[in-house]
Amino acid sequence: MSLPTVSVVVSAYERPAMLRASLQSLLAQTYGQMEILVQDDSPSDLCAEVVEDLADPRILYTHHQPSLGTLANLRAGYRKAKGTYVATLNDDDLYEPQYLETMVRGLEQHPECCLAFADHNIIDGEGRVHVGASDRNSAGFGRDRLEPGVIDSPLELALVRKSVPGMFAVFRRELMDWSDFPDEANSGYDFWLTYLAVRTRRPVFYSDQRLTSYRTHEGSQTASFTDPDKRLRSLAYDLFMHRRFFEDERLRPVQDSIRERLAAILVSTGNAHLQMGQRNPARKAFRQALALAPSRRARAGLALAALPASISKAVLRARAGV
């Protein structure tokens, strides 16, 4: 009996040393039935040299010039995928050797499941595991309290608690509508992947083993959120996605929770605009938040937006402890 193929889409951008480590973790998998779609968005040939050096026939390399951007680069790979299952590996992250085998086994044993996912480690730029950060991450997303196995009702788990890391999940390809992958999802592509799967209302499979590693470093997406302008851009795609979720009738069981989350994102958006001295868009965001789910934070934000910019900025800095 032939094994199902997993299409692993690997994003690459000008980090050849990290790409080599990521691909080596992939080639060391105990499950070998893969097609590896390396999507290189780099301006140089440094990543191409890594692929040539590894010389594995399962690697299908594409170099996009000019660069497409994170979402479009990955989306092109997903649309080329031919495997029964589809996974993602960013060039700064790693797989443990048993990851794909564990995920495929879960999906094969439970054909009703739309995806399989596992817990993951937090590693630094040198690849060292930070146990405390990993424990806090698992607890923060509620994965430490999940029972391994099949989870029958994943909507709240995936879309409200965000317990399913789309970048570390294996998806059943036939259930994914790759035509519904808008540019506005931007760097939230992994959350959008999860949405495409769980909106089918099918169960998911979970392993509580830490079978992947997420790398935090100066150039990682997580690190960029401390910059006010980048934070505002991240809120823009979060806002877009949650508006889509709120309008999706298939998500009706969690609509109230999504409404509250959408209002909270609007408040955060209003505060980010205030930090940048943009009072009119701040007022608009706070009013929209109040229309969805009235809260003290939204009212306070609207009051702040009525004050002179210098005062509102000072108040926000004081709140942040700056």
TrEMBL record:
| Swiss-Prot/TrEMBL TPR repeat ranges | 263-296
Q: Which UniProt keywords are listed?
A: TPR repeat
User: Molecular function (GO) terms listed?
Assistant: hexosyltransferase activity
Q: Which residues form the Glycosyltransferase 2-like domain?
A: 7-131
* UniProt KW Flavoprotein keyword: no
Answer whether the UniProt record assigns the keyword Transferase to this protein. Answer: no
The domain of life is Bacteria
What name has this protein been given in UniProt? Glycosyltransferase involved in cell wall biosynthesis
